[in-house]
Amino acid sequence: MGVSALVAEEVQGAPAQAHLDKTTADWGLHRLADGIDQKDADTPDNWIPRHPKILRLTGRHPLNCESPLDLLLGAGFVTPVSLHLVRNHGAVPKLDWKTHRIEVGGLVNNPVSMSMDELVKFPSITIPVTVTCAGNRRKEENMIKKSIGFNWGPGSTSCTYWTGVRLCDILKHAGVKSPDQGAHFVCYRGPKGELPKGEDGSYGTSVTLAAAMDPSNDILLAYKQNGRWLTPDHGFPVRMLIPGYIGGRMVKWLSEITVTKEESNNFYHYHDNRVLPPHVDAELAKEEGWWFKPDYIINELNIQSAAARPAHDEVVSLKHNKPYKIKGYSFTGGGRKVIRVEVSLDDGSSWRQATIHRFEKPNPYGKYWCWVFWDLTVETFDFTRCKEILVRAWDSSQNGQPAVITWNVMGMMNNCYFRIKIHPHTDASGNIGFRFQHPAPIELGKLGNMGWREEEHLRDEAIKTVTTEVAAVQAAAPKPPGSKNVYTMEEVSKHTTEESCWFIHNGKVYDGTSFLDDHPGGGDSILINGGLDATEEFDSIHSTKAKEMLKDYYIGDLQG
Amino acid sequence: MGVSALVAEEVQGAPAQAHLDKTTADWGLHRLADGIDQKDADTPDNWIPRHPKILRLTGRHPLNCESPLDLLLGAGFVTPVSLHLVRNHGAVPKLDWKTHRIEVGGLVNNPVSMSMDELVKFPSITIPVTVTCAGNRRKEENMIKKSIGFNWGPGSTSCTYWTGVRLCDILKHAGVKSPDQGAHFVCYRGPKGELPKGEDGSYGTSVTLAAAMDPSNDILLAYKQNGRWLTPDHGFPVRMLIPGYIGGRMVKWLSEITVTKEESNNFYHYHDNRVLPPHVDAELAKEEGWWFKPDYIINELNIQSAAARPAHDEVVSLKHNKPYKIKGYSFTGGGRKVIRVEVSLDDGSSWRQATIHRFEKPNPYGKYWCWVFWDLTVETFDFTRCKEILVRAWDSSQNGQPAVITWNVMGMMNNCYFRIKIHPHTDASGNIGFRFQHPAPIELGKLGNMGWREEEHLRDEAIKTVTTEVAAVQAAAPKPPGSKNVYTMEEVSKHTTEESCWFIHNGKVYDGTSFLDDHPGGGDSILINGGLDATEEFDSIHSTKAKEMLKDYYIGDLQG
């Protein structure tokens, strides 16, 4: 089956496909996720087909992924579901269309327990919406100082068609009470027992009743994506969808909706999706109660842009002066419109205006929910005296992107200028050109380079590491192979159970058994690495503080 | 009558006055505008009482004014009407409550011609709203490169109670048609023949029908301010009030409302209140049709902050280390909430969080329409190694202020960090302290200093001026007194009519008669300066280009 046919199959049922003509030609190597990826084989998610090209950001499990920028933007305005970012906090719940119910209660006159068959009988709408994780571009923040979140690149945004029933229709159906009667919030959550923390182990949050009842907001109980029933990773059989908000409010596997006087009291409502002021670190946040201060909740996305071309580690020859097309995406929140994308090749002294490609029409209330693509043609000659490409966008409220990062403890909402460094480069034959370097891509580039923020970070870390190593050498004499605290790989690989769970990190052996119950990410994510070298998975998700904690579980060194 | 009694009188009728307890104590020297200011004596506005302390930004007439920051913030959350910014494009129309009518037509089923007595019978609401000119802080932009607008300082924002009828109620009363029937915009305008440009000489603009019909937006036909009927400068008898939008959309002396398919075609709708990209100057804008590109319209305010203390030219002694309270205002648009105000004393490396004083409660839909005040106590010792105080704010959509200005041809929406320079200072007795310097205050400070952006600008201008003067000297030999082209003041003062209108600028005499009809600001604003020295008034409102045009009207030099 050709690419176009696959695309057509995936988006089947989505209306207003005319725009696809513009993009299908570029879909290149995409394909549907049609098999189980070997990376999932020994995880609880080993029943879910996933695309082999997604970038897994937290090891094999749970799945948190984005797609490489060139693949993502190459797919065009509508992202194939199999390439859409995924943010899972644990194993994907196995829910059944026939038995799943949504309980609607609280401050309503007619509490409802609704089956999926009942839900889909309500009038539905289908709209394209860009869904973005609030942690998009967090890796750049982590390279300045580790936040408590894992590394997202600039690809944790995607745009698909979503089909669902308006939340306001469901609330009206249940006889929602008025603000005068004390109804001010709509709380909602996924399945109970899904996650390690909070009273019932559910992931829950809330929006204001005013936002929920406002038809201009297009808040949906969504059950189809690109014309097909949801996949398990995207919330099968139903999820909340809130255009213009951060992805974190769009709870998947939606199970309960409760109208209340106060906002959600769910653990994750308070301990996730907040931007605290830059001086607040994890300890201070806890000590001074910052998680519970109402002003720091984040809902609407802010104005954002990033460039996919030049790609990280792309090389452009300087032999002849040629046109070069810089391109990328931009979006904003709250239904606002992206009105300007600008590129500077002189450190911000002057800005060239990019051409915006807008694929959606505003909703009847004038709101915009989707990313735009942009491009700007320069000449390769323009790069000769330019050390950096700067990209920034503006929205219809005249909000722009800041020139520099403001770090925050959750590493969220980073929307500083997207800066690509330009380096002189010669290839093996001595041809002169320029090499481009993104700030913090998830993967090494074709030439083996990391991002420039990562390089800067590593230089800083190297100094710290030397200090730490010296201290370690002084503290303990090296153990020769064969001595009591040196283990072979074979020995380590026997400890894979809840009774005894060992793992390796940077050539050292740790016994994580006693920490299984206390691990913030759940015991399962330690167990799946039991008996294995967990260096890469560990480093991708843990803070400096967590790394320091390792020493309490250190039992010896790996032989060799 | 004491100050409190005057305040009480001015705000009489405004509900929910409890917050005033916090602020009345500070109102200081305020008083109602209770007489005709001599500056207005020979202008068409010589019937309107105005406060003597307002800062007139475009000479005597028409009135465009803001209040000094200390007076404005000293007045507290609710600004006295007499200190509220005013933006007039020409003479204030003399309207009569008894005869004034609002015509409501276009795509409505029942066109209405409504008298004021009829209007005030509709249900009304009273809400506090911060009204801000989109040109607030424009003087900072003009100091980088002259925009086509006059110099506003940071005081072109004010907050009062407004009472009026919801626009959506009036539209419903007139049987407004639906978007399906082609209704998409609500156009509205002031009196015809008021202004020099456009088809009918009215000031008009439009908002989307969706925005107009959304009750959460609180758009009002406002007829009272702080509990009293509107004053002529604020739109008597009725004006449009759109919370969270720039002041430019809040048309005064409201005369006509028309529901339409397309946005307003009024001259000022297209040629005012736009932010064009930084590379577009006045010539390019005209040449390439930028005024008519829909994306560059501005409606919602962006996030803004400024500091009133330390004041410009304030001096702080360094004798003893003492607490010092930095304070100011902040606001944002679109109903968003100001959530953080931060101050840096180390060039942005770290930020201290100011305390926010919020006086309003959100409307039932969670929207905020008012400024907040903020303060942060530091120690005078903190200033010893600090060259600049930086202030920035963030709103609930995580939009912050940019570190640097992005110039635009209308000089609008400047919201870069508010930067106060700190200079070592000794007084006459040799006591050491620090002097503070605002970027671009409207008045010289107590010590005679201008703003730091102005100083930088003048350094640049000085170079240009020297070049120009040299050219002038080369072009024309100096004229001795008594020669044909040297005029006495007495002679000049005779030319004050439409038949012969001379004026003086920087010691040179100009004959403006032939330009009376073509003057973009109207012939009247030349005539009121006929026979006078117009240097100050001319410079405050004209662009570099306009100054260059002067040479075409030069007729000689002033004697002495």
From TrEMBL, chains A, B:
Gene3D superfamilies for the chain: 2.60.40.650, Cytochrome b5-like heme/steroid binding domain (3.10.120.10), Oxidoreductase, molybdopterin-binding domain (3.90.420.10)
> Would the keyword GTP-binding be found if you checked this record's keyword annotation?
no
* UniProt GO cellular component terms: membrane
Q: How does it assemble?
A: Homodimer.
Per the UniProt record, the source organism is Ostreobium quekettii
PROSITE patterns annotated for this entry? Answer: CYTOCHROME_B5_1, CYTOCHROME_B5_2, MOLYBDOPTERIN_EUK
Q: What is this protein called?
A: Nitrate reductase [NADH]
Q: Which co-factors does it depend on?
A: Mo-molybdopterin
